[in-house]
């Protein structure tokens, strides 16, 4: 009797549990997951220790272990990890932005390449003309200096024409980016070539100035009596100021405590522009000097002056615009 009642009770209990499991399976596993999550949080606190009975204390799980358990729990349930989703979205966004930037850069590079190709053809024609005029005018003046005799005075017009018309013109064109032979060089190479050409030009101009001064002393003639001589003196002064400004510009970072870099560049740009304009003007005045008029008629002198004007116009346009921009920048930064 008792065994019969017990067996009937046991079978009823098993049927009840089976029915309960079936209902849980049909209703989903949401409550089960919440229960398991609560059990993990309850059984594994974040910090501290809990009593493990009379045997003593054992360390509890850390937050890292909690995250690992939750990750495993989510993997078992098939739910994605929110942190992983965020990382994937961030990576996708970064890759998308990188692709957009690379595409924009490639399009910009293509546009620059197209401009350089078109600009290079113009530069090729202009530089052939201007460089040809530079060497033609300086070569003719140098030839005229030594065609009869080689005296102390001969080195003055020869070195002045080479220093200003060739070397200084090439140095200015190199930095302004309008020289076909150097416009593809990087900035460091351009600065080096500018320094080298200006240094050689400064040496030749100094030698030419010393030669004319000693020649005046040897002949016991007065100094700075003509317009050409006065322009020459002012030109040399501005050339020295330009050289000093160039040194200050090169070491602008080391001298920033004494002078702002924008000011050193401004001084160098203004002094260099004025020095070059005065230099070519002085050479033009020298073409009309009494010494040069003895063996050259008016047409030759006029052709030389026009050629000198074309050279100066081509060389100095870009530096003048750069100097104006630097003046505006200096004024805005000061106000």
TrEMBL record:
Keywords: Electron transport, Heme, Iron, Membrane, Metal-binding, Transmembrane, Transmembrane helix, Transport. It is a multi-pass membrane protein. It is found in: Membrane. GO terms for molecular function: metal ion binding; transmembrane ascorbate ferrireductase activity; transmembrane monodehydroascorbate reductase activity. Residues 25-63, 76-111 are annotated as: Disordered. Residues 93-111 have a biased composition (Polar residues). Residues 117-324 form the Cytochrome b561 domain. Its main location: membrane. Its cofactor is heme b. The chain crosses the membrane at residues 123-142, 162-181, 193-215, 227-253, 265-288, 300-322. Its EC number is 7.2.1.3. Pfam families: Cytochrom_B561 (PF03188). Gene3D superfamilies: 1.20.120.1770. GO terms for cellular component: membrane. SUPFAM superfamilies: MFS general substrate transporter (SSF103473). This is ascorbate ferrireductase (transmembrane). It comes from Anopheles atroparvus (European mosquito). The lineage of its organism: Eukaryota, Metazoa, Ecdysozoa, Arthropoda, Hexapoda.
